[in-house]
Design goal:
The protein is an alpha+beta fold and about 750 residues long. The chain contains 29 helices and 16 strands. The chain has 2 domains: about 325 residues, Farnesyl Diphosphate Synthase (Orthogonal Bundle), CATH 1.10.600.10; about 375 residues, Orthogonal Bundle (Cytochrome p450), CATH 1.10.630.10.
């Protein structure tokens, strides 16, 4: 029986009743200050963004780390808590996305070794977490640690990363994992010895490492580490089954020993209690053989390990991170009942990238309004709920203060009311009416030039990629022309907008993407500065000139505001090229519609509208509630982040007949409606924040498609090629290999 086979079945069980005979450490009087300090530190270091820091500040995610600081003074306590957050973020990077694949984790581990082992030649770290470790965390730890303790800590950090690499090898199918292998790895996977080293360091304890006493200390740590790690596994079963994570004690017990899910959970609970009993026995042995000089440190350390085990139990029992079906966990005397039939989906599940539409059906049918705990957002999937949220002003756009503003400053996206209207008015003239008519000539010229290059590619190689050779370049060239920027800078600007859009869609808050986005924003602003200065003096008829001369309440827009607009337009270009790629894929996949579009170019508009509905480039729009709101399908609390799943709403059978079909005729001739705020689909949003660039996107896609069809009479997929959509929140075919 494979572990993945277990994932697809319904698992039902009660969490075992775990009762430890220990007292947790007392709550620190300065816990709030300690938490705030670590959140601010993480932001300064660039390892969390605004949203991540806010969640850490307002949740219980740091409580376990705060508890482990014991009674250490504030300076030393902050070292341990900063380490706790660094390890927590690393664990999330590995578990919640593709970051650890393709050798990235192994290279990260080598870099960590270069930082913590002085014998290894160090390299310059570009990853924010590596920079933080090298420039701040490791030097701060070394002061109170001393060389011996630093050496032990370095070894345990490396063992933690080696264990993570071993698990990734298992995920790739390069290494089998049975129960015994897992038990050997589990303490290091959890990083228990790292935290125990830090407790020893911040408390100033000097423990024996050799002889009989040293051997007993090692065994004591092992018992405490197993209790902490296995407790994590017990409370992680629901989450690990949902995320298809096989590395879990209970999951492996059931796989290797058979029996029911309840048998596996009860066995795991019994193993934890056995380790507790062993810990107590070893502590008694230590007290009998320890010297007078050792006794105080050993007693203190054993007390701290006991408090940490109890903290682990209490934290896992109550934190929402491990209880997807409940706002809080079970009480100490109540066994929590779990059925994976009731486990809400999370955007971090692998299924969302493999096939989001199947996941959307599950959400619409079973969980139309649901809190996604790992993402810390409410998901809306039904059409009526999504449209309601996009149009109701109680769903504000304050989310852009963390989603976009750190990189591009305050833009029209996060504005409301009169301010929003005034700023929209600044952009509309260049993207509608005469401004768009001027751009039409640019679009036609760019499309014909690129189509000619594609013909050369087909003549020379027999195939071409319409994503790289046509869609991306066409959109990029038109957006650059709309801004009036030099055409030769288009490739450089494309790099910036791709990096910028990765920042905006960074649902996992990956630190390297946060850092790259900030750097890209700064570079773009520096690039734009002389162009803005020139347009202030000698304006033309391009969008940049319009922005430079526009006044609100008698005041010109600031340079930074204009730069933000330019960055937003460049980032928005990526949605257009991806949407156009989906349109071409839909047409080539449906030869009858392709043939009809050739004979009647007006049908391209209907096909474009239908492709936007069926395969939107951007699958979500984020909002923030200003008050508790009752939707048709459920209630969302105040101050909640809400993700409107556009891709799910556009395929809601309650609104669209046969929604999975590509059916250009469903617009019933009212094609123009699909490109304004009355559109039936929600790919451009809805209401007051309906996409400003919808008309420009339409012009690019429709003209670009017509030119392509006029140029190539027999456009079809290259031999053996099938288009494949990729991406989570931003989704489209990664390539379109064609022949003629």
């Amino acid at each position: 029986m494979s572990v993945n086979a277990n994932v697809s079945e319904i698992a039902e069980f009660e969490l075992p009743s775990l009762v430890f005979p220990f007292r947790a450490a007392q709550v620190r009087a300065d816990a709030a200050e300690l938490r705030a300090g670590t959140c601010a530190w993480a932001q300064r270091q660039g390892i969390v963004g605004l949203r991540g820091a806010a969640r850490l500040q307002n949740s219980d995610l740091l409580d376990l780390g705060i508890g482990m600081t014991g009674s250490a003074d504030a300076e030393h306590a902050s070292v341990l808590l900063d380490w706790f957050l660094w390890m927590l973020l690393l664990d999330d990077r590995i578990d919640n996305g593709p970051w650890a694949s393709d050798g990235v984790l192994e290279e990260f581990a080598r870099s960590v070794r270069a930082i913590v082992e002085p014998r290894v030649v160090s390299t310059i770290a570009t990853d924010p977490m590596l920079r933080t470790l090298a420039d701040d965390l490791w030097p701060r730890t070394g002061g109170p640690a001393g060389s011996a303790a630093s050496g032990r800590l370095a070894g345990h950090v490396i063992r933690h990363l080696d264990a993570q690499c071993a698990m990734q090898a298992h995920h790739r199918g390069e290494r089998d994992l049975d129960l015994n292998d897992y038990l050997e790895l589990r303490r290091d996977l959890f990083g228990a010895d790292v935290f125990f080293d830090l407790i020893e360091i911040v408390d100033g304890l000097w423990l024996p490492t050799a002889g009989a006493t040293g051997a007993l200390v090692t065994r004591l740590r092992a018992c405490a580490g197993d209790v902490a790690a296995w407790t994590n596994d017990v409370f992680s079963v629901e989450k690990d089954l949902a995320l298809e994570e096989p590395a879990n004690l209970a999951i492996l017990l059931r796989r290797d020993r058979g029996g029911s899910w309840q048998d596996a959970l009860d066995t795991a609970g019994a193993m934890i209690h056995d380790r507790i009993a062993e810990f107590i026995t070893i502590r008694g042995e230590l007290s009998r053989i320890a010297s007078v000089a050792q006794a105080r440190s050993l007693e203190s350390f054993a007390d701290r390990l006991q408090a940490t085990m109890q903290l682990c139990l209490d934290w896992h029992r109550t934190t929402s991170r491990y209880h997807w079906q409940h706002a809080t966990g079970a009480s100490a005397t109540t066994r929590e009942r779990i059925s994976t039939r009731s486990t809400p989906p999370s955007l971090l599940m692998a299924g969302f990238e493999r096939d989001p539409y199947t996941m959307y059906r599950l959400l619409r049918d079973e969980f139309p309004v649901v809190h996604d705990e790992p993402v810390d957002a409410w998901l809306l999937s039904r059409y009526e709920d999504v449209r309601f949220a996009l149009c109701d002003p109680r769903f504000s756009s304050r989310n852009y203060s963390w989603q976009l503003a750190p990189m591009l400053g305050r833009t029209v996206f996060q504005m409301e009311g009169r301010e929003h209207t005034a700023h929209r008015t600044a952009v509309i003239p260049a993207l509608r009416g005469r401004g768009l008519a001027t751009l039409d000539r640019t679009i036609h010229t760019a499309a014909h030039d690129l189509a000619a290059r594609v013909r050369v590619q087909l003549d020379q190689r027999g195939r071409a990629d319409l994503v790289q050779d046509y869609c991306k370049q066409l959109t990029r060239d038109v957006v650059v022309a709309a801004l009036g920027l030099p055409a030769q800078d288009a490739a450089q600007l494309q790099e910036w907008y791709e990096t910028g859009f990765a920042y905006v869609t960074n649902a996992r808050q990956e630190p390297t993407i946060l850092a790259a986005g900030m750097a890209a924003g700064a570079a773009l602003f520096a690039y734009l500065a002389p162009h803005i200065a020139a347009r202030r003096d000698q304006p033309g008829d391009d969008l940049l000139s319009i922005l430079c001369q526009y006044r609100i309440d008698g005041q010109l827009l600031s340079d930074d505001t204009i730069k933000g607009y330019c960055g937003t337009l460049l980032a928005g270009g990526e949605t257009t090229d991806k949407a156009m790629a989906s349109l071409l894929a839909n047409l080539i996949d449906h030869p009858d519609h392709l043939a009809a579009a050739r004979t009647d170019p007006h049908l391209i508009s209907a096909a474009w509208a239908e492709s936007l509905r069926r395969n939107p480039p951007f699958h979500s729009a984020t909002r923030q509630t200003t008050t508790e709101i009752a939707l048709p399908s459920g209630v969302i609390p105040a101050n909640a982040t809400v993700i409107c799943l556009l891709g799910a709403a556009n395929r809601d059978p309650r609104r669209f007949t046969d929604p999975d079909l590509f059916s250009p005729g469903r617009t019933d001739g009212a094609v123009d409606r699909e490109f304004n705020a009355a559109a039936t689909h929600v790919s451009f949003g809805a209401g007051r924040h309906f996409c400003l660039g919808s008309h420009l996107a339409r012009a690019i896609a429709e003209t670009g498609t017509k030119v392509l069809l006029d140029t190539f009479a027999r456009l079809r997929w290259a031999e053996g090629f099938t288009p494949k959509e990729t991406g989570l929140l931003l989704r489209s075919p990664e390539s379109l290999l064609v022949q003629n």
